[in-house]
Amino acid sequence: MRRLLSDLIAAPDLEVVGSAADAQTAQARIKTLAPDVLTLDVAMPGIDGLAFLERLMRLSPLPVVVVSSLAGEGSETNLRALELGAVDVIGKPRQDGAGGFSAYAEELREKIRTARGVRLKKPSGTPHPAVSPAAPGPGRFSTGTGKVLFVGASTGGTEAIKTFLSGMPADCPPTLVVQHMPESFTGSFARRLDSLCAPRVVEAQGNERLEAGHVFIAPGHSHLLVKRTPAGLVTELSRAAPVNRHRPSVDVLFASAAEVVGRNAIGVILTGMGKDGAQGLLAMRQAGAHTYGQDEASCVVYGMPREAAALGGVEEVACLSEMARRVLAGLHRV
């Protein structure tokens, strides 16, 4: 596996400087080889990958891309790796038909290139209980303002979304979230957020009614949209082609918000590589929605917010720790 990964990573701008079969060997080679990025399996002999990652990020932080099984219990383990400071996760190498490993190799190299340029953040460590900034009465945001919140993120987004939702009260506006992640992760991600945050967080199934205090995470296999019905606003899922190479796509969610919700929508774009969400956030702002972008200093990767700001889609810029408060403070603006 290590030889295969080395072959797949090799590119004119990427050099594999070494490999290790266990954590002890890896620790020694990191000191002597000083790599820019580390790929890491969580299943290793002796010290497991999570324990090694926790120690590494505490003592000598290094951008880490986890290469691991994405199925079953692996999804929970890999989410924990992201909490501990890993930049991204990718499954084990897989062939793509007659092309062999070409698609996988391209994805792996892209994740490594992204990791090379990230701003390392202090890992969150053990999960913490949500702290709500306010405790308004039931339904205040839904019935008082009619606002609906739309959130998009990519690289670094699992922790950013957790931080943002932890600042939301139990009866926050109905919220739809797109986070770029594998299909096997989104259910576990929603359950983890539900255990940490005051609002109810679920993986969207489609046709759920939008109500205050409910957060819907886009499943990894489908675009998430909002649809207006005689009974009110509901979630909608689509297996249409990827947009900006992503499904779910932030642009698809935001464009839906602009078309269906208009001035009652609130858009938030968080850390992430690329430009997904930029055009959609601009459409939201042009439709009268209030829009927010995470600032560069608090982003793991200042890509998506930067692209959205460059297009004129960002109305207000805020650091991640202040984003929930700023959004809540602006709910009653006309």
TrEMBL record:
A single Gene Ontology biological process assigned to it is:
chemotaxis
| CheB-type methylesterase domain residues | 136-334
For region Disordered, the annotated ranges are: 120-140
Catalytic activity, EC: 3.1.1.61, 3.5.1.44
The primary site where this protein sits is cytoplasm
Q: Which Pfam families match?
A: CheB_methylest, Response_reg
KW Coiled coil (keyword) present: no
In this protein, which residues make up the domain named Response regulatory?
Answer: 1-107
Q: How is it modified after translation?
A: Phosphorylated by CheA. Phosphorylation of the N-terminal regulatory domain activates the methylesterase activity.
Query: Catalytic activity, per the record?
Result: [protein]-L-glutamate 5-O-methyl ester + H2O = L-glutamyl-[protein] + methanol + H(+); L-glutaminyl-[protein] + H2O = L-glutamyl-[protein] + NH4(+)
Q: Which domain of life is it from?
A: Bacteria
Q: Mind telling me which GO cellular component terms the entry cites? A: cytoplasm
Annotated active site residues, numbered on this chain, are: 154, 180, 276
- Is the keyword Cytoplasm assigned to this protein? yes
Residues found modified as 4-aspartylphosphate: 41
> What EC class is this?
hydrolase
Q: Which UniProt keywords apply?
A: Chemotaxis, Cytoplasm, Hydrolase, Phosphoprotein
Q: One GO MF term, please?
A: phosphorelay response regulator activity
**Localization, UniProt:** Cytoplasm
Q: What SMART domains does the record point to? A: REC
Role noted for this protein: Involved in chemotaxis. Part of a chemotaxis signal transduction system that modulates chemotaxis in response to various stimuli. Catalyzes the demethylation of specific methylglutamate residues introduced into the chemoreceptors (methyl-accepting chemotaxis proteins or MCP) by CheR. Also mediates the irreversible deamidation of specific glutamine residues to glutamic acid.
PANTHER family per record: PROTEIN-GLUTAMATE METHYLESTERASE/PROTEIN-GLUTAMINE GLUTAMINASE, PROTEIN-GLUTAMATE METHYLESTERASE_PROTEIN-GLUTAMINE GLUTAMINASE
**Family note:** Belongs to the CheB family.
Q: What is known of its domains?
A: Contains a C-terminal catalytic domain, and an N-terminal region which modulates catalytic activity.
Record's protein name: Protein-glutamate methylesterase/protein-glutamine glutaminase
| Lineage of the organism | Bacteria, Pseudomonadati, Pseudomonadota, Betaproteobacteria, Rhodocyclales
- The gene it comes from is cheB
